[in-house]
Design brief:
With 417 residues, the chain is of the alpha/beta class. The chain is built from 16 helices and 14 strands. The strands form two sheets. An eight-stranded mixed sheet has the order 3-4-2-1-5-6-7-8, sandwiched between helices. A six-stranded parallel sheet has the order 11-10-9-12-13-14, sandwiched between helices. Helix 8 (243-252) crosses helix 14 (358-370). It is globular. The two termini are 29 Å apart.
Length: 417
């Protein structure tokens, strides 16, 4: 079977990107797999770092340029309801038009048996518009937009319209958690039976190589306090990830408790300056470390030298960082209303915060630091979330989708609605 997976970025470390790479790796053990990354804009066809799958070319040509010029106004009319007057949305418009042109040129040559689109966004719309009733198609929702984000309302409209269209055309939809599925059902009135749940996985063996290193030595390497309890958070620095909640908890807790803690922030993003400003204003420099973007080997080392994982996000799908933390044997501190918690929760693995008040978060951190956690049992639990099972589940769904789509093959004319 030839599988085309669409989504993620070539060098990104976001949850959906990591999931796409892991799924592609697993499927490539038995199938021919191609990945079409949303970014960067230009990609010369190449093999994945481990050689298991290929990336689709994203290279311009005169025909691509001509199509983009010719179709620019028609495509603008198609996507106008989902755009805001911003430079970012201008870029997203041109990127989506470019993707549409690439699809028309390259898909008849590639001839995949199925196309698996990850996520619903403006950049993904060309794939959904063009592929409906032309190729077997599956769409996976990694999360539903949160209204705290700057383009939330336009994104919500896009999500609703796309999901309704998929249902109308009997396109298979999956969600990475029951919470994401329920959100789509509740907010957009999607029939419950039309969304299947396929949860993400984790490679526990990624963390095995670093387990022999002493925490003290590893912390010295990264210039972290040797005796403090390190609470790590991994992810993009944006308002949705809600790092500020942990900083507020540190600022409000008793000095004796704060002196025992180090909040390790891994990742980068537009909120970095605001978070740094808060740290300086509240004199938290001794308790907060910004690690920035790190390599995969450094990330594993940082997980293993930590004592706890915290995720205060406003919204999530099924966070891969949850599973990575469990694979590293880390107890998780998180709010009870974070999507995906109910799928992962075990009392011996997580300390839940009952509400979103700073007082409750401080209390949960204090309880977690006083609890005796069995790291090995946490890692053993992570083994039940393996990518092999995820890959097999998707293969079964692909076969079902292909079977349902028989008789509808062939590349048709440009579709914009």
């Amino acid at each position: 079977m030839k599988v085309l997976i669409v989504g993620g970025t070539l060098s990104g470390k976001t949850g959906d990107t990591n999931a796409i790479k892991s799924i592609a790796n697993e499927l490539a053990q038995t199938e021919e797999v191609f990945v079409f990354p949303i970014l960067p804009v230009f990609v010369r066809q190449m093999i994945s770092p481990n050689g298991s799958y290929k990336f689709v070319k994203k290279t311009p040509s005169l025909s691509i340029i001509f199509f983009c010029v010719k179709s620019s106004f028609r495509w603008l009319k198609r996507v106008a309801p989902y755009l805001r007057c911003s430079l970012r949305d201008c870029f997203r418009y041109f990127l989506s038009l470019y993707h549409l042109a690439l699809l028309r040129r390259d898909l008849p040559v590639l001839k995949p048996d199925i196309v698996h689109v990850h996520g619903i966004s403006l950049e993904m719309l060309p794939f959904i518009d063009y592929l409906v009733n032309k190729f077997p198609l599956m769409v996976t929702c990694h999360g539903i937009s949160d209204y705290s984000e700057h383009d939330a309302f336009t994104r919500a409209n896009l999500e609703q319209d796309v999901l309704k269209k998929l249902v109308a055309h009997n396109i298979m939809i999956t969600a990475v958690s029951s919470a994401v599925k329920q959100e789509a059902v509740t907010r957009f009135d999607i029939p419950l039976a039309d969304i299947a749940v396929v949860r993400n996985g984790v490679d526990v063996e990624r963390f095995a190589s670093g387990r022999g290193t002493s925490k003290e030595g590893a912390r010295s390497r990264f210039r972290l306090p040797r005796r403090a309890s390190v609470i790590i958070q991994v992810g993009t620095l944006n308002t949705r990830k809600n790092h500020i909640a942990v900083l507020r908890a540190l600022a409000s807790m008793e000095l004796q408790l704060r002196a025992q803690l180090c909040y390790l922030i891994v990742g980068d993003g537009k909120e970095r300056d605001n978070l740094l400003r808060y740290v300086r204003m509240h004199k938290l420099e001794q308790n907060v470390v910004f690690a920035g973007q790190v390599s995969d080997s450094e990330l594993i080392a940082l997980y293993l030298l930590s004592d706890f994982f915290v995720l205060p996000s406003i919204s999530e799908g099924l966070p891969l960082v949850f599973l990575e933390a469990l694979a590293a044997g880390l107890p998780i501190i998180t709010f009870s209303d974070v999507e995906g918690v109910e799928e992962v929760y075990r009392p011996n693995c997580m300390q839940l915060v009952s509400d979103r008040s700073t007082t409750s978060l401080v209390s949960a951190i204090q309880i977690a630091t006083k609890t005796q956690w069995d790291r090995q049992s946490i890692t053993d639990y992570a083994r039940s979330w393996d990518w092999k099972t995820v890959g097999k589940t998707y293969l079964d769904l692909y076969r079902t989708s292909i079977q349902a789509s028989r008789g509808n093959s062939g590349i048709g004319p440009l579709s914009m609605g």
